[in-house]
Amino acid sequence: MRLKHLLLFGLSLCASATLIAQQPIGNENTWGSITGNAGIDAQYYTKDPAIGAPDVPDRFRMNSFIYLQYKKGGFSAGVRYEAYLPKPLLGIDESYTGQGITYRWASYKYKTLEVTAGSFYEQFGNGLTYRAYEARSLGFDNYTDGFRVKYNVKGIYVKGIFGRTRDFFAYSPGTVRGLDGEINFAEMIPKLKDKNVDVMIGGSFVSKFQPGTEKVVGPEVLFLPANVTTAAGRANLRLGKFNINGEFAYKFNDPSSANQYTYRPGTAAIVSASFFTQNFGVSVGAKRVDNFDFRSDREVSGNRQLLNWIPMLNKQHTYNLAASIYPYAVQAMGEQGLQADFQFSIPRGSKLGGKYGMDINVNASIVYGLDTMSRKNITYVEGQDSLTLGDRYGYTVGSGLGKEYYRDFNIEITKKFNKKWKMSVMYMNLYANLNVLTISQLSTDPFVNANIGVIDLSWRINTKHALRLELQGLFTKQDQGDWAMALLEYTISPNWYVSVMNQYNYGNPDKSRRQNYPLMSAGYNLGNHRFTLNYGRQRAGVLCIGGICRAVPAANGLTFSYVGSF
Amino acid sequence: MMAASMSVMAQNKIPAVAVKDINGNTIQTDKFFNDGKPMIINFWATWCKPCVLELSTIADEYEDWVKETGVKLIAISIDDSRNTAKVGPMVKGRGWEYEVYLDANEDFKRAMNVNNPPHTFVVNGKGEIVWQHIAYQPGDEKVLYDVVKKVAAGRPLDGH
Questions:
Q1: Where are the alpha helices (DSSP H) in A94-219?
Q2: Which of A115, A142, A211, B82 is the most exposed place for a label (fewest CB within 10 A)?
Q3: Which one of B137, B146, B158 makes the best mutation probe of the A interface by having the most chain A beta carbons within 10 Å?
Q4: Rounded distance between C-alpha atoms, residue B48 and residue B118, angstroms
Q5: Where do the domains of chain B lie, and which CATH numbers do they carry?
Q6: If you ran DSSP here, which 8-state letter would residue A418 be given?
Q7: B-chain residues near A357 (CB < 8 A)
Q8: Nearest by Cα to A271 from A230, A308, A233, A240
Q9: Residue B15, SS3?
Q10: Partners of residue A466 in chain B, C-beta under 8 Å
Q11: For the whole model, what pTM was predicted?
């Protein structure tokens, strides 16, 4: 009953917003403009113990939101209403259950000064010390609610923030304050731009306040400090076609549940260099992270109340088997890695390139843990002697390599044969340490070596009709064994698509787990609105079907989705 | 209600949001300019296959589109800082001639009410958003170009 009223409310809001938005141009100055977007994901779950799907006794779950923005001159405001009823979709934290207004803000911009009150998303540098962002289809949203000021003058950019972090429909106990400055010399000194040189330096201070407290951990009574400060410095240098970028961050003592209440400082560093010219581009990157979990509440875990963001240093895969079975997850407590990526095109007209040329991407990445052999085990065990102060304050980390966590080598080639036929092939070799990544169900042998192959073939039948076939295989002797996948997608521009897909775990050592994961999907586009219906079993990851990409959590059953902008 | 919103588009201008170009310089999005000629604003990401397919398909015809209508395609990458270093190499490596900007924390995407990439807008010579479309399916580039031609000639956009 309540659900029906909510949907009607949502639709009527949408209707009134579109009516207001239809004011002719002349009225924009007197009325201001209203725009927005909305989305609904509703799922009906069927029982499926064979694939280990959790039982959903209430059967029906829904995530939905509507966002409205108002703008008139230098003034703008926004409000978002979210409803997760009767509970959010499976895979999204159940603490989201409920509904209410979440992200709401008002902002005024005068020349180069911008002031925001309420909720905002913001990033300092690469995000190592502060990043408030959203990935709501994955259940992630850590906006800051408070106050923000942005100002710039001739290449100097300054930002100040203050507030609490979102925690479902509430806010964190801790508050964050931050200041970020960046100087872009090419914007200041035109001579540099003429010489094709760009130089940027920047720095930030981010400090978190949460009332200090005493905590009993084993035989010790620890005093947890109220203020935790991070400092970061960054620089970017571009000389013609060559670019180098780096950021280093330092975190003062931050005893929290994530690092088992140690007082050791944390560090994070990333460096990347790239070079690109016509038909060729290369980028390399290196990263090292040590004790860099940073939150608004020292007691929470998982995805809650994170203040910063550590970029992953491996390719973001989208082909289903490559992206969703052994994905890599950043280990904020300690990891170091390297990545290299090459992109080149064999020119059109050449023998190998053919009429349209050929695109090739080669990518490799490797991640290790830190060398913590000299680190003492600081977990208190009943009956053991108490730990010395030195362990809690100063365990050391060696400069060598720890255990291998992840390794990935992949090559992807795309070739258009003629106006009707196009093909992509991908080969990938990966190594995943499941003790660290904890993503699999079977871990009799946690060190997985796998090879993945993908063929993606598309046929333009005529101007409006196209057919695409995707065949994938994942081959491994460990964990769940081999997988095979096939996808057939038929699209009719610009409105329709229909697809069928099946993933089959034919190589699972446990015969009862050799399951098929069939999924049928259909969608209809109406300008800026899109309706989709999915039926079957879905794995977590990034799914690209029917012309759109979506980050989706694991799901099973009948799903109806709507997204629209107005 | 849906049909009504389809036929009479809100004539809104591009909001002012800070994005960065591939060289790290900050640009305000309300300053996007094409000398009175139409612009296409396309939201994409390096990991979004239909986005890369759309931009590759248009790349084959882009020279003709520019010659005939003077249109400019502005490609806004919503890749986060994990992937921003790869945007330049991918764009240049594939030989795309578009103007590319980085919207690493999705501020412009939010201001334009974009949900998922790809999402394409057509802006007329006065800087007003006159058409938008979600998703990409082979053949959609023909519809997009029809809209661009009409906007360049100053003709109305009924039925799109």
A1: 185-188, 190-194
A2: A211
A3: B137
A4: 8
A5: 20-153 (3.40.30.10)
A6: S
A7: 95
A8: A233
A9: coil
A10: 137-139
A11: 0.89
User: Going residue by residue through chain B (160 aa), what tens digit of pLDDT does each one get?
Assistant: 444 443 334 468 899 999 999 888 899 999 999 999 999 999 999 989 999 999 999 998 999 999 999 999 999 999 988 888 889 888 888 889 999 999 999 999 999 999 999 999 999 999 999 999 999 999 999 999 999 999 999 888 876 5
Q: What is the CA radius of gyration of chain B?
A: 15
d(CA A132, CA A144): 6
**Single-letter amino acid code for the residue at A308:** N
**What is the C-alpha separation between A177 and A432, in angstroms, rounded?**
38
Among all residues of chain B, which has the CA nearest to that of A246? B85
| Residue A122 three-state SS | strand
Report yes or no: B34 and B155 within 8 Å, Cβ to Cβ: no
Q: What is the CA radius of gyration of chain A?
A: 26
φ and ψ of A194, to 5 deg: -65, -35
Does A121 contact B83 at a Cβ distance shorter than 8 Å?
no
Q: Considering only CA atoms, which of A166, A70, A173, A54 is closest in space to residue A119?
A: A166
**DSSP string spanning A278-294?**
TTEEEEEEEEEEES---
> For residues A520 and A120, what is the distance between their CA atoms, to the nearest angstrom?
38
Picking from B46, B56, B81, the nearest residue to A311 by CB comes out as: B81
Residue with token string 């730990």: A387
- The DSSP line for A4-35 is HHHHHHHHHHHHHHHHHHT--GGGHHHH-EEE
